[in-house]
Design brief:
By secondary structure, this protein is mainly alpha-helical. 46% of the residues lie in helices and 9% in strands. It contains eleven helices and five strands. InterPro entries: RecX_HTH_2nd, RecX_HTH_3rd, Regulatory_RecX, WH-like_DNA-bd_sf.
């Protein structure tokens, strides 16, 4: 069926022939307006679950610096930030700082007095500690203990401690003389060794017994020292005098030195 026309309605010629004017106007207006895009429903974006960041390390009042990051586990390794050595304060707090030298000295004295005092080992324990490190003669150990005495320790206690050590076998002049003579025999002659032992307060019988325990004779020991130091016989009198002085200073007798410089001493088996 065709459209019923109404009285007074206005018609215009269009592309399809005679059409109402109001419909043509709507068509022109709709053609002039830009097309509106319909909103599209966007799916929600799923973010990948990031691992929780954990900070591992110590922190200081100055902050921290990052030393490493583990991306897989999310661990951030940190280290405390410290000031350069020149910028570090030598005082624990601002209250400790003082420009007055006398006041500063009094504060330091008060701090030192407030510190708990460590209990000092007894005289006997100190003597045992000294003998544990090396051998001592009675005279040397007595001098060492007397130098370490405090105001509240009795000097007479030193003698009682030494007697106790000798009775227990911890202190022995004979053992000290043997040990000292054996160690000194590598670089010293008999005269120098005897003089040192007498200076340490060792009795004469202990000195003679220690010298008898030395395995090699003096001339062989003199040859070992001469070979290490020189190794060649002197070419002139000046060189000979220099070698003689070197050997005599170390306590070797003139008879042993003469035999060495004349080449009359047979080299030991381990030096041949």
């Amino acid at each position: 069926m065709g459209r019923n026309w109404e009285e007074g309605e206005l018609f215009v010629w269009g592309d399809d022939g005679l059409v109402p004017a109001d419909s043509q106007e709507k068509a022109v207006r709709s053609a002039a307006e830009p097309a509106r895009a319909l909103p599209l429903e966007t799916p929600p974006v799923r973010r990948s679950e990031e691992p929780a960041v954990r900070r591992v390390g110590r922190s200081s009042g100055l902050g921290e610096i990052v030393t490493g990051v583990d991306e897989a586990s999310g661990i951030v390794r940190t280290a405390p930030k410290v000031l350069p050595r020149r910028q570090r304060s030598t005082y624990e707090s601002d209250d400790d700082f003082c420009n007055d030298p006398e006041e500063l000295e009094s504060r330091q004295a008060q701090k030192k007095a407030a510190r708990p005092k460590k209990e000092r080992p007894s005289l006997f324990v100190r003597a045992i500690g000294s003998l544990a490190r090396r051998e001592y003669s009675r005279r040397d150990l007595e001098a060492k203990l007397r130098r370490s005495l405090s105001e509240d320790e009795d000097p007479d206690e030193v003698g009682r401690v030494l007697d106790r050590l000798e009775g227990a076998g911890y202190l022995s002049d004979a053992r000290f003389a043997e040990s000292r003579a054996r160690s000194r025999s590598r670089v010293m002659g008999d005269a120098r060794i005897r003089r040192e032992l007498r200076q340490c307060g060792v009795a004469g019988e202990h000195v003679d017994a220690a010298m008898d325990e030395i395995e090699e004779p003096e001339e062989v020991r003199a040859y070992r020292l001469w070979a290490r130091r020189f190794g060649e016989l002197p070419a002139d009198r000046k060189e000979r005098d220099r070698q003689i002085r070197f050997m005599m200073y170390r306590g070797f007798g003139m008879s042993a030195i003469s035999r060495v410089l004349k080449g009359a001493v047979e080299p030991p088996d381990d030096m041949a």
